[in-house]
Amino acid sequence: MSKKKHQPPYPQDPFSEREASNYQTPIPSREYILSELTRLGHPVKRKALVKHFLLEDPDLQEALRRRLKAMLRDGQLFKSPEGFMPITHADSLTGIVVVEKEGVGYVKTEEGQSILLNGQALRGYYDGDKVNVQIIQIDKDGYARGRISQLIQAVKPTVIGRLLKSHQQFEVLPFDRKFSHHITIPKEHKNQAKDGDIVQIEIFREEKHQFHTEPVAKVIEVLGDFSTPGIEVKMAIRKFGLPEVWSKAVEKEGKSFSAKSIKLTADRTDLRDLPLVTIDGEDAKDFDDAVYCEQKKEGWQLYVAIADVSFYVQKGGALDKEAITRGNSTYFPGSVIPMLPEILSNELCSLKPNVPRYCVVCQMSINAKGDITRSTFYRALMHSKARLTYTEVSEIIRGNETVREKYAELIKPLEALHALYQAFYQHRKERGAIDFDTIETRILFDMAGKIKSIVPTVRNVAHKMIEESMLAANVCAARFLQRHKRGTLYRVHDKPPADKLKSLRQFLGELGLDLTGGQNPTAKDFTKLIDHIQHREDKHMIETVLLRSLSQAQYSPKNIGHFGLAYPCYLHFTSPIRRYPDLIVHRGIIEILENKGKKKADNTDYEKLGEHCSETERRSDDATRDAALALKCHYMLEKIGQEFKGVISGVASFGIFVELKDIYVEGLVHVTQLGNEYFHYDAAHHRMIGDRTRTMFRLGDMVEVKVVRVDIETKRIDLELLNQPIHQQLSRKQQKKKHKKEERTKRAEPKKRKKRNKSRQSRRKKK
């Protein structure tokens, strides 16, 4: 750096006169600061810049600090822990704006980086905008912060809310927390909506109301009110932008097919005499998989037949383009948005009994240990022999004579399938696949389309028989495509991220537990821990934390294996009627069969397609969760004032979430309602700790609460705490001592039992 002393104005600064005329105590101009940083060619910290510009006066140093801050704000400088650097055009990255709530968001770049934006940087931009962003700062934690330098492609932002009349004008109060302000609706854009209606609006990007700074919008659809049947699902569809209307081109292509054209062709194997059956839930409408199992001397022969969707949905056609857009079917409580039109999903690709249907078959030979020794794929023509339900198959396995008599001809293959399932299940345990004991629920509706009750879904042995059969077919398909080096989409599940693993070990250590496997634990290490905690009172809490420590499964052309299922190679083959990745897999298999293994040119961008399908899957999950939450809020309105027992299902800085026992609805006890003291949020251990009494609220604790408020618009259920957990915080030493005692008691129990048995035998002999 320069050793030569000079006083302002700076002779080297071409804008020193301008600075001197504007300020009594001028400092280097922005242009001069940028040129000096460029000349130096490396990041420079503020203190070093103070020395470089010889700013001995504290006022001048403060002026430089403010100028550097302004240059950061205006996108002229970039700041990292090493210091300041000038931003050039080359520093721009392209990405999509993601708004989490008003004033809080980031840009997700094409490289997968998240660049945080503050409220000022977000102003005028909306969720989904494609932009160029410049990184202006990297903080000590490594988070990049930036500013948007260019809007490349603007979305048409739509919002759902309630229309309100206010002072001779109309406004919409958005339900989405991404918008905290009212949005003005000019009378000419009201679209016949009435005061109090739930509406969807589209915001004008450039227009503002003449008297207000809030956005201006037009009503594009009147959805009704909260008493309208199906309003919750309709709102979720609009909120998440789920496509639900078929284009004329799609309808035309769908109508071009006919069941009359289904016949045996030279490229298909005739399986019409094979007793294949479908096994699904009682309310299922599409049947896309059928099974048949035969006991052999050396093991079993398993046939998994999947509807041949690829025969109808040709690559590049209208049906194919729409299926890509949707990515998957979306299953709401009580309704579904299918990936494909009903002519396919409920008819031609539905394996109904006693009608001819095209299918793709995975035929497997399995030995007595449950190992798949051989598998083949081929196209076939089939006749399903029965539409069975999980309940019926479960009753057959249990020995219900009435049901067994009804399906007498199918008893032998179903019992063979059950025996195969037991071998598969043993193989699963040896593999170490993770299996959490979670409760899934089903919503039952009344005639008005509102919740009548919420009941747990019972998984019986038939569910598991089908699940293991489908897993086997998926694995065979993955091996087949990998062996032929064919591009496809794998279903991948990465190992737990290092930061989550670190937090998990810290959490387990406080409980006297340990996850084996060092820095690279396997699924078997997780399973070992799950088995170890089965008799603990805090089992539910520990399993919840274990589940949240895992990565999210996704679709990718790069096979990294499936951590949770403990498979080195896995994909989805069994549901092409409702998942686009499965359709991709079918096309790959059929192409190999038709070309007799020869590789064919493929210009599909599997990386981009995998990201898209992963995104549509998340979109569907978010939409169904949103609709279910809205339905549950309506259900809880009549329960305001009622008291319930519940379990703490989540802990956050602002309070605890409690799942109410028997009705499976979650509400919030705000932190201010926990007690007359300050509560610390311990994120690592999923608990709140009272500052004075050391009272703890932990994940998995049982509590009693009262429903005090339900807000349908914000989908929030507020609870009041009626009692407090009896435990107080134990030190780490006390925790270890407690759990060592529990372990000693557990180890001593067999000896005590043996001693008691000997004592009883001795008394009997004496008698």
Task: Sum this structure up briefly.
The chain is α+β, with helices and mostly antiparallel strands and 767 residues long. β27 (655-660) and β28 form a beta hairpin. The relative contact order is 0.07.
Measured between the Cα atoms of the first and last residue, the distance is: 102 Å
Instruction: Tell me the β content.
Output: 25-35%
Radius of gyration: 32 Å
Strands, count: 33
- The average pLDDT value, as a whole number, equals 89
List the keywords.
single chain, 767 residues, alpha+beta, OB fold (Dihydrolipoamide Acetyltransferase, E2P), 5 domains, five-stranded antiparallel beta sheet, 20 helices, disordered N terminus
Secondary-structure blueprint of this entry?
Layout: H1 16-22, H2 30-40, H3 46-52, H4 58-73, E1 77-80, E2 83-86, E3 92-101, E4 104-109, E5 114-117, H5 119-122, E6 130-138, E7 144-153, E8 158-166, E9 169-174, E10 183-185, E11 198-208, E12 215-224, H6 231-239, H7 248-255, E13 269-271, E14 277-280, E15 289-296, E16 299-307, H8 309-312, H9 318-326, E17 330-332, E18 335-337, H10 342-348, E19 356-367, E20 372-383, E21 386-389, H11 390-398, H12 401-406, H13 411-431, E22 441-445, E23 451-456, H14 461-483, E24 490-492, H15 498-510, H16 523-532, H17 539-548, E25 554-556, H18 580-594, H19 606-636, E26 643-652, E27 655-660, E28 666-670, E29 679-682, E30 687-690, E31 696-698, E32 702-711, E33 716-721, H20 732-766
Parallel strand pairs: 5-7, 13-20, 14-21
Antiparallel strand pairs: 1-2, 3-4, 3-6, 4-5, 6-7, 8-9, 8-11, 9-10, 11-12, 15-16, 16-19, 17-18, 19-20, 22-23, 24-25, 26-27, 26-32, 27-28, 29-30, 30-31, 32-33
Helix pairs in contact: 6-19, 13-14
